[in-house]
Each structure stands twice: as structure tokens, then as C-alpha cells.
């Protein structure tokens, strides 16, 4: 149905039911293959079609009966056909699996007839379902069985054991594209790019001209940041098929790869416009509305290019609750995310776990650490899922400063899943917070090796490298001060009065995205507000300080904002907050009895500079302003976090412990009211300081 696909690509159909009516009306002129292809296309596009006339004409068709599962979530017709024909029980099992019914899925392949013509495939489905349910299973012989045996190893023993098996057995493994593609996909998920590359080399050597080889070559180029190569390969593939100008004929995989290329290409610019990504994703999703990867890319494109308030409203009815909750978290709306994750949980074990993990993450982002830990539930049996559970258990424990628990679960997870970069970074932070700087450095070294394998080059130094290096040094610095805050939150001794003015200031350079506009409105609803840009900030500095020439020399918006915020607070006081902080509740009581309000960050227990509140003329702020200005003046290429941001504030704030009127908030305290560090579109661009 190329004409229909072109219509769908161009715009939504004025009458979505018309193609289905036309198919049924012309049924007498169609043979089976044409009728099946037409019905499958309509179901894939989520267009209404009455399947009963087709199923009555071809009552023995398993494939037609399968369409009812996708179209109406009804496995009844398929069950009737399969049991009557005594074949293709695997199709019935996977249909029940897709309907979140693992018990019926297992029952469908529990008693198999060796005389059935589909017995081998049914036996493979039985083994795979048992493996996915963490039950004993006997993979059958052949390529499918080889893949299932490897799947069993991965789930029972973890990624390290899987990599060892591939290394030892690869010469004897079948040259089956599905097996090697699964290995590549799995190693990419584990962030083991050495093993993924080795698996691809085996696939390319044995099946050089297979479509799976071409697809995996593009996939790895995208995963490893080789965007130009990925685009060249994808364009050559499209041109060879003469399909460059007919995107409505592309496969879902091709749309996905094109969108990823486009995202990465645009992000390399200083001020990217993501509207083309949203336009293509919207069109592709009309062709493949049930494709979860395209659904995710469409939501991502809306985050980058669409109105956030409208997106938040639409996420209330998004078909994938977990995907919607993730996006709502990224929009700074954890309460709405939690509502989308309301029980009952899915019945499939892995989906149920991931729902619990998302719920725990959401509660953590609401500052409710005890509830987050409770929401995790028990660790699962499958090792890859246990690693995901361990990551969030460690994150929540670290936020609660239960560092012993965090270290224990991370150590166990890294034994079996050593290439998961998130585990390595969390382990580095936990070691640092525990006062184990050498252990933190070991974890960062392991992370750097993994990241180098991914990118093909050294990733460069980040803030974590700087603070761990500082902890390893002999001289007192930001790391030593941060460890003091990690050990204990200083007690608040209130003043009799409240000298901090209840007004907020922000700094922003460049175009205002929907996210910026929404944040401005939210802060304006709380208290009087001022917004500065480079010109107005420089004008203020010119009139009130001698810092305007230094401001002019600073190379990026982040350091300019850092210098200006300290100067403004030192003179006028009030609240200074970055616009990627989104308030969900009032904060006037934080200012009561305080002359300074600081937030201890979750990551390395440093003092944040994305939210600062101070009384006018506070000597601490004036001294900090002068020290940061001196550092920036003598640093050719300043790193904002280290030279003008949290590192400098942390070192200075160590001297405030015990002073009256100094309120220290933990990040969980802060996140009960303010969503922090939201992923604004500009952060994907090459101009962002990270």
C-alpha cells in the first residue's frame, strides 16, 4: 500500500476508517497474500479494520488471527486457530506474552506435540519463555538453541560470563545473523564495546552482505559517536535502493537510524533547531505508531522542540506509562510521573522490575529517600536486572548517606556486570564520599577505559576527575571540604530576623525555549523576579563593580553567569537560581532566620551554585566573589564547575560551619520542592560547558 503510506507520511487521514472499509469491500478480488499484507499494513498503522471477514474467508490462517492480538488485544481467534491446527504454538505463546500474561504464554508451549510441523520453533519458544521467567530450561539444538544458551548464561551469570563464552566458543558458534545481532545488541546494552566490536567482526566475516551486517555497522557507528560515518553508510544504503525521496517506504529501523543521525548532527551546532527532528519523528510515528523506539524518539523530539506544558498534558494519556513517567521526570514533574506509575504493575518480570525502578527513581527525585528504597522491592534473580536494581539501590543509599550499603551492592553488581558505566561512576562517587580517594580513582580509571573503547579516544577530564584528583593531593581543597559536608549536615542556628530578600534573579543568554519560558513563569509566580542577559548583566557590573572588563573576557556563558551571580548576591542579596531548576512549591520558610541558604549536592557533597540565597552585603559572598574573580582572571581556559562554581563555593563554605543563620539543605531536602538540573535542549549542544 505505497499510496496509503505516502498519504500517512504527508498528513493524518481525514477518515482513518476508509482504508479498512476499502480492503473489506474489495476482498473478493484479493488473494490470500494480498489480503494479509493489506490487513497487516492497516494494523501496523493502527488504522481501524474489521478482521472478521478475512478470518472467515481464511479460517486456518494463523497470521490473520495474530493480527487480532495487535489490533484488539484479543488472543481468542489465534488460540482457536492454533489449537485446531495443532501448529505454531509459539505464535500463541508470544501473543499472550505481548498481552502481559506470562502464565498463559508458558501454558501455550507447556505440552508440545512432537508430530506438529512447528515443533522445533515451539520448543525454542518454550525454552526462551522459561529463561525469561528465570525457570530451568533446555535450549534446543541449532542456531536458535545457541542463542538461547547464551541468553541463559547472560541472565544467570551476567555479562562477564557471556563475554567469556563468546571469546571461547565463537569459532564454533553458527554463522546465524540473528545470533550475532543479539550478541551485539546485548553487549551494547552492557556498554561493552570491545565485545560488541568483536561480535560484529565475526558477523561481518561470516555474513558480509547480509542486511543485518549493514544495520549493525550503522548501529555501532551511532553508538560510538561516529555520526559522519553513520550518515554516509545510511545514505549509501538509501541511495542503493532508490529510496532517498520516498521516506514513507522506509522501514522503522531506517527511520530510527535517520533520526539518531539527525539528532547527533544538529547537537554538534552551537544553537541547534530540533524542529526537523520533531517533524520527521511525527511523520514516522504515523507509519509505525506501535514502535516503542520511535515512540521514545518522538517524545525526545518533543522535549527538544515542543511546548513543555503541552507535552506534559499529552503524557497523561501516553500508551507507555513508564516512558511517560521518564519524560515527566525530565520535565520536572515527579508527582505527575508517580501518578503514571500507579499500580498494578506489569506481570512480566522484567517489566515489573523496571516499573518499580522508575517509581523508586521518581520518589528519589521528590526527596523521599525512604519511600524510594521501599519502592525498589527485592533484587531479582536475573543478573542483568539485578545490576539495574543495584544501581538504583546504590543511588538511593548514597543520597541517604548509607555508604556501606551502597558499596556492598555495587561491588556485587560489578563482579558480574563490570562494563556498566553507570555502576562505575556511582561506585566512584560512593568511594569518594566514603573517604576512599584511591578507590574512587580506580573506578574512574575503569570508566575511562570503557569510555575510550566506546569513543575510540580519551573522553577528557570531567568534574569528577578534578575533585578525586584534589582528594588524592596533600593540600586542603574543595574535596576535603566536601567530605566534611558528606559526613554531617551542619546544624541550622536561626537568627531572630530574616534578612534575605524574597526576590529571585536569573541569568540567560540566547533564545528562550519553551522550557525556559515555563521556568520563568513558575519562578515569577513565587516572588518578584529579574532576568539578566549578557548585556544587562554587564551593564549592572559596569555600574556596581570593577568586574565588567573581566566579564567581557570570559569565554562562555557559564563562567559569565557564575561571576555575575556572586557579584549580584554580594551587593543586593536575594535568591539566584538557574533556569533549569523548576519550583514545585514555595520556599519562603527556607529563608526564615537565615542569612545564607546553601544546598549540599548529592553527587560529591559539594555546594551547588544553581541555587543560592543570601542577605545583602554578606562578607562571605563578597569574599567569594573576589576569589572567583581572581581565579578567572589568571585562568586561560576556566572549567566552570571547578574555577567559578561549586568547587570554589564548597571550599569557602567549610568556614561557615557552626555560624548562626547559615542553612544547609541536603539535595533530598531541596528536591522536595524544586526539580533540579533539568535536561534543557541547549545542554545537548556543543556550546554547553559539559
From TrEMBL:
GO cellular component: membrane
Keyword Transferase: yes
Pfam family, one: TPR_19
Keywords: Transferase
InterPro entries xrefs: Glycosyltransferase_domain (IPR051706), GlycoTrfase_DXD_sugar-bd_CS (IPR007577), Nucleotide-diphossugar_trans (IPR029044), TPR-like_helical_dom_sf (IPR011990)
UniProt feature coiled coil, ranges: none
GO MF: mannosyltransferase activity
Organism superkingdom: Bacteria
Protein name in the entry: Mannosyltransferase
GO BP term, example: mannosyl-inositol phosphorylceramide biosynthetic process
Stretches that traverse the bilayer: none
Region forming the signal peptide: none
Amino acid at each position: 500500500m505505497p499510496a496509503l503510506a505516502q498519504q500517512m507520511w504527508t498528513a493524518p487521514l481525514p477518515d482513518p476508517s476508509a482504508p479498512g472499509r476499502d480492503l473489506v469491500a474489495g476482498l473478493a478480488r484479493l488473494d490470500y497474500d494480498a489480503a494479509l499484507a493489506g490487513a497487516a499494513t492497516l494494523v501496523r498503522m493502527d488504522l481501524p479494520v474489521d478482521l472478521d471477514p478475512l478470518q472467515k474467508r481464511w479460517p486456518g490462517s494463523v497470521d490473520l488471527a495474530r493480527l487480532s492480538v495487535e489490533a484488539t488485544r484479543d488472543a481468542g481467534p489465534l488460540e482457536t486457530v492454533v489449537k485446531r491446527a495443532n501448529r505454531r504454538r509459539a505464535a500463541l505463546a508470544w501473543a499472550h506474552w505481548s498481552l502481559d500474561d506470562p502464565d498463559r504464554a508458558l501454558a501455550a508451549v507447556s505440552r508440545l506435540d512432537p508430530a506438529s510441523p512447528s515443533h522445533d520453533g515451539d520448543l525454542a519458544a518454550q525454552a526462551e519463555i522459561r529463561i525469561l521467567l528465570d525457570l530451568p530450561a533446555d535450549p534446543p539444538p541449532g542456531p536458535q538453541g545457541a542463542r538461547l544458551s547464551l541468553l541463559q548464561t547472560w541472565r544467570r551469570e551476567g555479562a562477564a560470563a557471556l563475554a567469556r563464552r563468546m571469546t571461547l566458543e565463537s569459532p564454533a558458534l553458527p554463522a546465524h545473523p540473528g545470533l550475532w545481532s543479539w550478541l551485539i545488541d546485548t553487549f551494547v546494552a552492557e556498554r561493552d564495546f570491545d565485545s560488541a566490536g568483536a561480535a560484529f567482526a565475526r558477523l561481518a566475516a561470516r555474513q558480509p552482505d547480509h542486511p543485518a551486517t549493514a544495520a549493525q555497522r550503522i548501529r555501532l557507528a551511532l553508538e560510538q559517536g561516529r555520526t559522519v560515518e553513520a550518515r554516509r553508510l545510511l545514505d549509501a544504503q538509501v541511495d542503493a535502493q532508490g529510496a532517498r525521496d520516498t521516506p514513507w517506504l522506509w522501514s522503522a529501523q531506517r527511520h530510527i537510524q535517520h533520526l539518531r543521525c539527525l539528532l547527533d548532527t544538529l547537537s554538534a551546532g552551537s544553537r541547534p533547531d530540533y524542529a526537523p527532528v520533531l517533524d520527521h519523528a511525527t511523520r514516522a510515528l504515523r507509519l509505525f505508531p506501535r514502535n516503542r523506539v520511535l515512540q521514545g524518539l518522538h517524545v525526545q523530539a518533543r522535549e527538544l522542540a515542543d511546548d513543555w506544558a503541552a507535552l506534559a498534558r499529552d503524557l497523561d494519556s501516553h500508551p507507555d506509562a513508564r516512558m511517560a513517567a521518564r519524560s515527566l521526570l525530565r520535565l520536572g514533574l515527579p508527582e505527575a510521573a508517580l501518578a503514571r506509575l500507579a499500580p498494578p504493575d506489569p506481570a512480566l518480570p522484567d517489566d515489573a522490575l523496571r516499573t518499580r525502578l522508575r517509581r523508586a527513581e521518581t520518589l528519589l527525585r521528590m526527596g523521599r529517600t525512604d519511600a524510594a528504597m521501599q519502592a525498589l522491592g527485592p533484587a531479582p534473580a536475573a543478573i542483568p536486572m539485578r545490576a539495574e536494581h543495584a544501581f538504583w539501590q546504590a543511588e538511593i543509599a548514597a543520597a541517604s548517606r548509607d555508604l556501606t550499603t551502597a558499596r556492598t551492592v555495587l561491588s556485587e553488581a560489578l563482579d558480574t556486570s563490570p562494563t556498566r558505566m553507570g555502576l562505575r561512576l556511582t561506585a566512584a562517587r560512593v568511594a569518594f564520599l566514603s573517604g576512599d580517594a584511591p578507590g574512587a580513582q580506580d573506578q574512574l580509571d575503569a570508566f575511562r577505559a570503557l569510555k575510550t573503547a566506546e569513543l575510540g579516544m580519551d573522553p577528557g577530564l570531567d568534574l569528577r576527575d578534578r575533585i578525586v584528583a584534589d582528594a588524592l593531593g596533600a593540600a586542603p581543597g574543595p574535596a576535603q571540604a566536601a567530605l566534611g559536608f558528606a559526613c554531617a549536615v551542619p546544624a541550622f542556628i536561626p537568627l531572630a530576623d530574616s534578612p534575605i530578600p524574597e526576590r529571585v534573579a536569573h541569568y540567560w543568554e540566547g533564545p528562550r525555549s519553551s522550557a525556559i519560558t515555563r521556568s520563568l513563569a513558575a519562578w515569577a509566580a513565587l516572588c518578584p523576579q529579574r532576568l539578566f542577559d549578557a548585556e544587562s548583566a554587564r551593564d549592572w557590573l559596569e555600574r556596581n563593580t570593577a568586574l565588567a572588563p573581566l566579564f567581557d573576557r570570559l569565554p562562555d556563558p557559564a563562567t559569565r553567569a557564575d561571576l555575575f551571580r556572586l557579584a549580584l548576591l554580594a551587593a543586593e542579596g536575594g535568591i539566584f537560581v538557574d533556569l533549569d531548576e523548576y519550583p514545585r512549591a514555595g520556599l519562603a520558610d527556607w529563608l526564615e532566620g537565615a542569612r545564607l541558604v546553601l544546598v549540599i549536592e548529592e553527587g560529591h557533597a559539594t555546594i551547588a551554585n544553581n541555587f543560592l540565597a543570601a542577605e545583602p552585603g554578606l562578607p562571605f559572598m563578597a569574599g567569594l566573589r573576589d576569589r572567583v574573580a581572581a581565579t578567572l582572571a589568571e585562568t586561560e581556559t576556566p572549567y566552570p564547575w571547578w574555577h567559578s562554581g561549586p568547587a570554589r563555593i564548597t571550599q569557602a563554605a567549610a568556614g561557615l560551619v557552626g555560624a548562626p543563620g547559615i542553612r544547609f539543605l541536603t539535595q533530598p531536602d531541596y528536591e522536595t520542592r524544586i526539580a533540579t538540573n533539568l535536561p534543557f535542549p541547549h545542554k545537548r549542544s556543543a556550546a554547553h560547558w559539559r
